[in-house]
Amino acid sequence: MNTPQHVAIIMDGNGRWAQRRGQMRTTGHRMGVEAVREAVRSAGELGIRYLTLFAFSSENWSRPEDEVNDLMGLLKFFVRRDLAELHREGVRVRVIGNRRALKADILSLLAEAEDLTRNNSALELIIAFNYGGRDDIARAARGLVDQVARGELDPQSINEDAISNALDTAGIPDPDLIIRTSGEQRISNFLIWQAAYAEFVFLPCLWPDFGRADFEEAIRQYSCRDRRFGSVAERDLALGS
Ligand code: IPE
Ligand code: IPE
Ligand code: MG
């Protein structure tokens, strides 16, 4: 089976999972963290090299303050509980997103996770936290303009690669497959530049229910896709049609 090198997941549906059980949204988020654990394990076993998880969007600040605090707390809980094990398993942790609005304790935990696992290479786990695609592009543009203003960069040399290299995902290949759970079929400002040629798989299951079988189903759907990148399919070229 054709395994994607980079899978990115929009982990959606925690709130609905809880509501259907008459529970608080927080409970859904807490169960979502368990699904994260399983997804990371599955990704490694399935031979995926890069796994990006959308954990908190730059638009999620508009949720009630309590829920925002819960999501911040759960990120800390996840890193504190699982970092040593991730490191043992050879996982490299990277964080993308805008760090400006994040509190000092979160920033230092994220830095600790990145530093500890810097030389690992079994799987790269990229956590998108306070991430927005438009914010990523705006920050990249500012960085490039600063370099131009300092006379370090010729504006004529700003091409697609230069922009890719100025994004938070510099050095990470574009996602091959983007999975979204919960049945919603939208990108919600996730990797909008990087997703130019990604395949999308939308699954009906809610994120806390996402397990190994769902991951395999998404990869099965991906492996049936014909990725043409604007060209013609190889088999059609061979037929000369
Ligand atoms: C995804 O679940 C988690 C985050 C966005 C942080 P939601 O909280 O969006 O769950 P629904 O969409 O309300 O069910
Ligand atoms: C996208 O889910 C963000 C994350 C999964 C972190 P949302 O639930 O915030 O997206 P919308 O609001 O339904 O588009
Ligand atoms: Mg949602």
TrEMBL record:
Might you give the EC number(s) for this enzyme? Answer: 2.5.1.-
Top-level enzyme category: transferase
Q: Where is the active site?
A: 12, 60
Q: Where does substrate bind?
A: 13-17, 25, 29, 57-59, 61, 63, 180, 186-188
List required co-factors: Mg(2+)
Question: What InterPro entries does the record tag this protein with?
Answer: UPP_synth-like, UPP_synth-like_CS, UPP_synth-like_sf
Cofactor binding remark: Binds 2 magnesium ions per subunit.
Job of this protein: Catalyzes the condensation of isopentenyl diphosphate (IPP) with allylic pyrophosphates generating different type of terpenoids.
This chain belongs to which protein, by name? Isoprenyl transferase
